[in-house]
Amino acid sequence: MCTTCGCGAGQTLIGGHALKQRKAGGQKMQYRTPDHSAHEHDHVHEHTHNSIDFGTGPAGAHAPGMTQARMVKIERDILSKNDSYANENRGYLAAHGIFALNLVSSPGSGKTTLLVKTIVALNNELKLAVIEGDQQTDNDAARIRATGASALQINTGKGCHLDAYMVGRAMEQMKLEDDSLLLIENVGNLVCPASFDLGEAHKVAILSVTEGEDKPLKYPDMFRASDLMLLNKCDLLPYLTFDANLAIENARRVNPNIQVIRISATSGEGMEEWLTWIKAGCQKAVAGRMGGA
Amino acid sequence: MHEMSLAEGIVQLVEDTVRADGCSKVKAVWLEIGQLAAVEKEALRFCFDAVTRDTVAEGARLEIIETPGQGWCMKCEGNVPVTALYEACPVCGSYQIQVTGGSEMRVKELEVE
User: Fold this and answer.
1) CATH class of A84-288
2) Does B20 reach chain A within 8 Å, measured CB to CB?
3) pLDDT tens for residues A161-219?
4) Which CA distances in Å does A128 have to A35, A84, A97, A226, A228?
5) Is A1 on the interface with B (CB under 8 A)?
6) Domain ranges (residues) in chain B
7) Closest approach of chain A CAs to the CA of B44, in angstroms?
8) Which CATH class name applies to B3-112?
9) Model ipTM?
């Protein structure tokens, strides 16, 4: 929609197809101004076109020196539209016993590799599906599909994050199975996805040891919004000066409640703990559906 | 640049309000943005101007009220000011702070005609 940076629905693709317009976003509205009121009607005009009627304002009158300007209270969150789509998604997921995770990180943290290993390890135990978010290309979804799992790619165009509307439409298209696991890999970006609730159970931040220990301090919003941090590529620690304890301490500075798992998709370190964490979440989602039914 | 999405969210709320209210012009939009809300105000202004083009809010003034960051320090058991998420409690130096205010992003009111 925006010609300046390209953000918005115009360039968003789900599985290669254009995202249909949002319910409320796309409509153009026609507004009447006092000197140009509805000209389309077919009764006889009693006013001339160049007249200015001061009585058409909301107050229905005009006092000299006073404009018709007034204040209208709104008091609504800017993200309330996104949040209402997120709540729809959350309701759907809960009703179907689906455990959804929103995986966030910077580009190159090893998210997709970790995801592939996770899927391979869980494929026989759990029904699972993946939503991939990237600005362009179908590469990541293709990597996931190579494992046999079902994956749908959302291309955000120039958009820097997934939002709840995109994920809702992707969920509709995928026809998720009951009592399954949904992994949503967000656009590689440690800033923007923090603010956008997708309806997931948890945000999981992935930080790799080839990045800086101070990343949680540099991008505090993301680590604040996440419930779990995976410290990835831990097999490389012997070759780096990266201080893992300091990185974890920094994450806890911005979010005292964040859980941390040291992991390596390559060596398999920490994988068991991560898989156990996922399975516990899935069991809880299934129990929630049974309880709610 | 999630400010572009935020600006679109603002325009949606403005359009909803205008539709319900029946007014013809939006002169100003008042926002309340918390200090800890991860919003770059100048970027938001830029995006607001871009996305309001050809809408009822075109040319509207954007007024931003910044609300201070606040937290509850678990060690001090008291309210403390928080200027950034990674900061320690200014009283005791602990990082065990629960943010209680300053993360809001709200459209407060509109000045319409």
Assistant:
1) alpha beta
2) no
3) 999 999 999 999 998 999 999 999 999 999 989 999 999 999 999 999 999 999 999 99
4) 59, 25, 12, 21, 20
5) yes
6) 3-112
7) 12
8) alpha beta
9) 0.81
